[in-house]
Amino acid sequence: MSTVLVIASDIPISTEIGEAIEAAGLSIEYAAGRSDALQRLRVRSFGAVITSPESDIDEDLALLEELRAIRPGIKCIFLADHSTPEELIAALRSKVFACFTPPFNPRIIASLASDAATDSDWRDDIQILSARPGWVSVRVNCRHITAERLMTFANEFGSRLPEVARQEILHGLREIVMNAMEHGAGFNAEQVVEVTGVRTKRAIVLYVRDPGTGFRRESLSHAAIANPADDPTAHILRREEAGMRPGGYGLLVASGAVDELIYNDVGNQVLLIKYIDLAPEEGVA
Amino acid sequence: MSTVDKLVLTPTEGAQPNQLVYLLQGPLTLGNLFAVQEALKSTAPVLILDLSGVPYVDSAGVGALVQCLVTRRKQGYRLLLVAPNEPVQKLFKLTQVDSLLEVFPTIEAAQSSQDS
Predict the structure, then answer these.
(1) Bigger pLDDT: A247 vs A270
(2) Residue A207 β-bridge partners
(3) Phi-psi category of residue B93: left, alpha or beta, with phi > 0 → left and psi -120 to 50 → alpha
């Protein structure tokens, strides 16, 4: 059974996360601090390490370097008191599994840690194509866990946006990324989706490109977006007839979550635009 | 299969013999769609889903609920939802299914709706 190492045994949130991991069926060990964590890692391997919520990302990155000097493949989930776009880019470059800042949700962190502990194909799942504050481009393998990892980083990049706008942007991005991975790539881990987030003075612009052949809007009778106004379930029957899973609301959700949703002519590239007046220091990236 | 979207469903008996109540804890998303579909296949005439422990729902989750609703209505059965949080209610509105769904603030209110 894989074991997760949780640093900072005396902090309630870390204990809660540890208990949630145990409830998920994995074993845990607590480390009192950085030195103790390194010592424990010399003795045995761990499926994943969760850092102390009282450390910052720069400290966690320094620790990660030491951890990987002992165990090169170690997966690390950062808990930190805050994050900046620069720190998040550094974390992505260092192949950190995920980053979380307050408010922490122990169940979600524990669930991701459980996946991290048993996932052996993660290392190159998120590749940075280009990154600077204000413009981040990544290429991600088409796996559900990778989409969830991407969303944890997107959540942190958007942490200084107004809450409602941030939630809407994340909602739209999640739907489009899942659409891209499922319909564009069939959740084939060998396929990749490209995602770019750009902050402008007045908007957040997201770009998603999938490897599929695209779609035509007139062929979307199985999607809710094609339903007549007086029949919001018309597509359900069409999906049942076609043997498709329940759903078909993705484009409707994404188009409602952002101000503009623009597809290219083929239908395998899409722009999501959300208008927000941003102060210079704010933004997703 | 990822467990990121882990959803726990706990069945309990309803206040009346024809009712079945499920307490859902965790997000209702594409990642756990098939697990929740099994619960939604219940043949209890009144199926009550307590969504108070569901932090968020995605489009696949909405699809599962609406397909369940449509199927149950054809059979003359009901699907009642309890205590969805504000973002989830907003999602129901965004997807234009809010007027179709029967939503109640508490399990007690849902259970007693049968009598009204």
Answers:
(1) A270
(2) A196, A271
(3) alpha
